[in-house]
Amino acid sequence: MANLSPLQKLRYEYQPKLPTVLKGDVKNITVELGSPTESIANQAEVKDLFKKTYGLPVAKFVEGTNENAGKVINVGVILSGGQAPGGHNVIAGIYDGVKNGNKDSKVFGFKGGPAGIMNGNLVEITPEFMDEYRNTGGFDMIGSGRDKLESTEQFEMAKATCEKNNITSVIIIGGDDSNTNGAVLAEYFAANNAGITVVGCPKTIDGDLKNEHIETSFGFDTACKTYSELIGNIQRDANSAKKYWHFIKLMGRSASHIGLECALQTQPNICIISEEIEAKAQTLDSVVDDIVDVVVKRSQNGDNFGVALIPEGLIEFIPEMNVLISELNNLLAIEAESFAKAVGFDEQVKWIISKTTKAASDVFASLPKGIQAQLLMDRDPHGNVQVSRIETEKLLIEMVDKKLNDLKAAGKFSGSFNGLNHFFGYEGRCAFPSNFDADYCYSLGYTAFLLMNQGLTGYISNVKNLDKPATEWVAGGVPLTMMMNMEQRHGHLKPVIKKALVELDGAPFKEFKANRDEWAVNTSYLFPGAIQYYGPSEVCDLTTRTLALEKK
């Protein structure tokens, strides 16, 4: 542990808090099973695809006799998808649980994500190795990856790796797509009597892996606090210089949970919520008009500055853009070879316009060349446009500036507008986990161990009652199939875990909506400051405004 910062040294010593039921001896923790469950939609289709793991009951851990407590098991852990603060503590919770069950049990880390289990690239996690990463950010302990586990060949490769190393349980730490892969792998192993259980853990800073049983995904708390500190800093600067409008794009590929949470923490002048844009069927032009209206009103008060939060996935929620992107995703998946023959950007544009519907081609033709190029970049592993590479914030600044110049020429605007763009994404994914995420992740990992200790497969670890002190948290597991529906991927219908979007009738959005008009015109900025790890509990153990409002 050489070359450590003072904070690193102290964080290694932090002991994460656990729910009371998980504090006891493993032999005194048993599982309580509920009634059979169904998928949230497309029940017949999902059931047909998951014949062995569909309809499992919700699990809850309680005090009782655990006959499997001392069983020797070998566990393989996968970090899958984008990084999120707290991933190392999930592994720590798994490791400590496994060793508490039986000191001869082993934990292996598959290196580089799902590719590790397919290629047999793994490392045994020793006490010394584990201790280097407790309470730290990042996924650098074993690395992550975005490889898919979806073909029979890949399943067999994973099975062979597990059999070679006597691994009887696999834990996938990931988001909705990663846990969908986990559900499919669990089904394959069950259908082929492999004797290998698969359990997931809910990871994503985006906050879109949630439901009545999973109150939040890990990493969301830390990421939002990190972004909110930066937003607060920029707001203080904007109010000091009084000459710039800052357009800040925030990570969150689909849902606007991060934008909404950061708005509740910092009270910016503008925060666009993609789900509201979609519900109102707003055009790109009308979104720009709304921003222009706020800029003009603030200017009339002598305030030619402000802060606007833009969700990363906004462009997909604007109806005409959604139509275009959906057509592009399907077109470039189905006719990839034909598109590859179009040499040069101009030829690619002509090809797109000739292949899409008139509505979609008209929208595409109207966009700046830079945005067109970004829409034609390589797709992500799921066949979707990489929205993080689309500079929506720059597009909005350009369009707002043009409209304001038109208003100035018409004598309807006498202020000034100087737009600056920012993108806060990677800054929040590997931050030191907050106390909440350090505790929550450790509990999720320990719970994942208990699920596999009980021989349960096709589950995702869950911890509830998160607005209360950790001693009152409730640990258990949710069947992965319960969270599924059928969606279009790569031009075909596939079973996937449904993303949880911002609910416009939910308490967090209602709180934001009740205050945003005042925040728009007045300078009502809040400054959360840096994440605090030591000090009063009301500061250090504070959870998100989203969770507090949802549980109120």
From TrEMBL:
GO terms for biological process: fructose 6-phosphate metabolic process; response to glucose. The active site is at D206 (proton acceptor). Its EC number is 2.7.1.90. Pathway: Carbohydrate degradation; glycolysis; D-glyceraldehyde 3-phosphate and glycerone phosphate from D-glucose: step 3/4. The record marks K203 as: Important for catalytic activity. Its cofactor is Mg(2+). It catalyses: beta-D-fructose 6-phosphate + diphosphate = beta-D-fructose 1,6-bisphosphate + phosphate + H(+). Keywords: Cytoplasm, Glycolysis, Kinase, Magnesium, Metal-binding, Transferase. Mg(2+) binds at D176. The keyword Nucleus does not apply. Substrate binds at T204, I205, D206, K243, Y244, M251, G252, R253, E312, Y426, E427, G428, R429. One of its GO terms (molecular function) is ATP binding. The record marks D177 as: Important for catalytic activity and substrate specificity. It is found in: Cytoplasm. Belongs to the phosphofructokinase type A (PFKA) family. PPi-dependent PFK group II subfamily. Clade 'Long' sub-subfamily. PANTHER family: PYROPHOSPHATE--FRUCTOSE 6-PHOSPHATE 1-PHOSPHOTRANSFERASE, PYROPHOSPHATE--FRUCTOSE 6-PHOSPHATE 1-PHOSPHOTRANSFERASE SUBUNIT BETA 2. Catalyzes the phosphorylation of D-fructose 6-phosphate, the first committing step of glycolysis. Uses inorganic phosphate (PPi) as phosphoryl donor instead of ATP like common ATP-dependent phosphofructokinases (ATP-PFKs), which renders the reaction reversible, and can thus function both in glycolysis and gluconeogenesis. Consistently, PPi-PFK can replace the enzymes of both the forward (ATP-PFK) and reverse (fructose-bisphosphatase (FBPase)) reactions. Homodimer. This is Pyrophosphate--fructose 6-phosphate 1-phosphotransferase. The lineage of its organism: Bacteria, Pseudomonadati, Spirochaetota, Spirochaetia, Spirochaetales.
